[in-house]
Amino acid sequence: MKKLILIRHGECDGNIEGRFRGRFDFPLNQQGIKQAHELGKILKNFDFKFIYSSPLKRASQTADIIATYTPSEVILSEAFNNISLGPWNGELKSEIVKKYPLEYKIWMNNPEDLNFPGLENLNDVKNRALRGVKELQTKHPQETIIVVTHRAVLKPLITGLLELKSPWFWKIHLDNASITTFELNLNNNYMMTKLNHTDHLSAFVEEKY
Question: What angle do helix axes 151-162 and 122-139 make, rounded to 10 degrees?
Answer without folding.
Answer: 70
